[in-house]
C-alpha cells in the first residue's frame, strides 16, 4: 500500500468485524530517536492465543468472502522493510492491540497519508467511537469522538459535521508538525 493510513484502515476494518465499539489509534513520530510507532487497539472479541501468529499468514483469514487475508501480512512487510516490526497482543473477549514500529527516516517508509480521511470513514459507523492521539516529539494532538458526541449529539455522519472533523484533525496534525508526508 502506498500510504500507512490505508494499512491502518485495513486493521480498523478487522476491529469492526470483531464487533469493537472503541478503537484507539496512536501515532508517535519520534523524530529525535528516528522511530515511527503506530498502535491500533480495540475492545472487540479478540483473537485466540494460538491464532495470534497465524494472522500474519496471508493464507489465513476469518473472512468468508475470500481465502486470503493480506492486511496484517502487508503491514508487517512494510514494517520489516523499514527496519521495524509488527507486534500483536490480544485476549479473547477483551480486544486486540497491533503495534507497528519502523525507522522514521527509512527511504522505503511509506508516507502516513490522509489519516483524517481514515478517521472520518470510521465515524460513518455510529456504533463505533475513536480515540486518536498523534504525538510528534513533545507535541500532542488528541481527537475523541465521544467528546464531540457530548457536544453535538450521537450522529456525527452529517456531511457538514464530517467535513468540520476532517479539517479539525488535519489542522491539529499540521500544528504539531506531524503527518510524515
CATH architecture: 2-Layer Sandwich
Radius of gyration: 16 Å
* Total number of beta strands: 6
Main sheet specs: 6 strands, mixed
Output the CATH topology. Answer: Heat Shock Protein 90
Could you give the order of the helices and strands?
A: HEEHEEHEEHH
Classify the secondary structure makeup into a structural class: alpha+beta
What is the molecular shape?
Answer: globular
Strand-residue fraction?
A: 25-35%
**Oligomeric state of shown chains:** single chain
Strand order of the largest sheet: 3-4-2-1-5-6
Number of helices: 5
Q: Provide the helix percentage.
A: 25-40%
Uncertain spans: 63-68
Q: Please, what is the average pLDDT? A: 90
CATH C-level class: Alpha Beta
Within CATH, the superfamily carries the name Histidine kinase-like ATPase, C-terminal domain
Distance between the termini: 14 Å
Count of all domains = 1
Structural features, described:
With 181 residues, this protein is α+β, with helices and mostly antiparallel strands. The protein has one domain: Heat Shock Protein 90 (2-Layer Sandwich). It contains 5 helices and 6 strands. The protein has helices spanning 4-17, 71-81, 115-122, 145-152, 159-175, and strands at residues 22-30, 35-42, 85-91, 95-103, 129-136, 139-144. It has a 6-stranded mixed β-sheet. Helix 1 runs antiparallel to helix 2, helix 1 runs parallel beside helix 3 (115-122) and helix 3 runs antiparallel to helix 5 (159-175). It is globular, with a radius of gyration of 16 Å. Residues 63-68 have low confidence and may be disordered.
